[in-house]
Design brief:
The chain is an alpha/beta fold. The chain is about 15% helix and about 30% strand. The protein has 2 domains: about 120 residues, Elongation Factor Tu (Ef-tu), domain 3 (Beta Barrel); about 140 residues, Nucleotide-binding domain of ferredoxin-NADP reductase (FNR) module (Rossmann fold, 3-Layer(aba) Sandwich), CATH 3.40.50. The protein starts with a strand and ends in a 7-residue tail after the last strand. The protein binds flavin-adenine dinucleotide (FAD).
Length: about 300
């Protein structure tokens, strides 16, 4: 039996400006007593209110998604994907760290205007109602027995990377590259002593270039030793039409595990370089296009 996904009614409990680019929104509500937190890079959907209409037509129940898709555009609330930065079940509080990227999308617009007490809906897994229910598939980080890790991403992946870092075994070793818009966007995060965390400020450079350089340098030293050496067929992904989501099937024995997320064009280039260029086994790397330049999420 699959995990139950449902709509949770929540309201804004706090809005905290973390840096020039990150805003933390703390959500609360009695419904969160039923929310199932799996940690790591757990994703949820946020459901945005329609101005003047709120959530009036938002369906609930088992088939909420089918009913939502069938709604006319004018009353179908926008859905966007975000990461659970942290969840405090006793307080029924959930934090989401939003990248504020201006007035260009409904989520970014909402976060620039939201106030304590505003209503929101999220879609996520509910606590299992029986032992027969499968665990949720809402988190991807799965290093298996790897003894060395790489985490790399842009600012949209920073909340997931920080949540993963805080959950790592203290003996973990590896490298972390997080590209953020400016020097002032570095966030405090704790990590095991053997994991080097490097915040890379773009400071006006082209998105993804600085992170790509760091991953290439990592690949030429650390990753090259664990390349499988096979010639790999790599299906092309048109990142303007398809979601780039290439995840190893299951944890298995591997020396290095890499998790890479961010702007889809940048992630596609890194996938090509690591798999085709360096020869890294695809079973060692999760590639996730979190958003695409010039394209709304849906
Ligand atoms: C699994 C997963 C987890 C994610 N977690 C987070 C998270 O925790 N925090 C977070 O901030 N984002 C996160 N994202 C990314 C987020 O879903 C997208 O940035 C989303 O497009 C934002 O929605 P929007 O309504 O603001 O913009 P949209 O309506 O989707 O897009 C409107 C325009 O804005 C552009 N745009 C979208 N995002 C950005 C951006 N970050 N910078 C500049 N331009 C942008 C688009 O290219 C488009 O032109 C995650 C994505 C995935 C798939």
């Amino acid at each position: 039996m699959a995990a139950r996904y449902r709509v949770f009614s929540v309201r804004v409990a706090a809005v905290t400006s973390l840096t020039p680019s990150f805003v933390r929104v703390t959500l609360t509500g009695d419904a969160l007593a039923e929310f199932s937190a799996v940690g790591l890079d757990q994703r949820i959907k946020i459901v945005l209110p329609i101005p003047g209409h709120g959530f009036t037509d938002l369906p609930d129940g088992e088939d909420w998604y089918g009913a939502w898709r069938a709604l006319p555009d004018a009353v179908r609330n926008p859905l966007r994907t975000y990461t659970v930065r942290s969840f405090r079940p006793d307080a029924r509080e959930l934090d989401i760290d939003f990248v504020a990227h201006g007035d260009t999308g409904p989520a970014s617009r909402w976060v620039s205007e939201c106030r304590v007490g505003d209503e929101l809906r999220i879609v996520g897994p509910a606590v299992p109602s029986s032992p027969a229910e499968l665990p949720t598939g809402a988190a991807e980080f799965d290093p298996g027995a790897a003894n060395r890790i790489l985490l790399a991403g842009d600012e949209t992946a920073a909340p997931a990377i920080c949540a993963i870092l805080e959950a790592l075994d203290v003996a973990t070793v590896g490298h972390v590259f997080i590209e953020v818009p400016t020097d002032a966007d570095r966030l405090p995060v704790s990590a095991p002593a053997g994991v080097e965390v490097r915040w890379i400020a773009r400071n006006g450079a082209t998105h993804g270039v600085r992170m790509t350089d760091q991953v290439h340098a990592w690949a030429s030293t650390v990753a090259a030793g664990s390349a499988c050496g096979d010639t790999v067929e790599l299906a092309d992904v048109d990142v303007d039409e398809q979601v780039l989501w290439d995840i190893p099937a299951a944890a298995e024995s591997r020396p290095v595990y890499a998790w890479i997320a961010g702007e889809a064009g940048c992630v596609k280039e890194l996938r090509r370089h690591l798999v085709r260029g360096v020869g890294l086994d695809r079973k060692q790397v999760a590639f996730m296009g979190y958003w695409r330049h010039g394209k709304a999420e849906n």
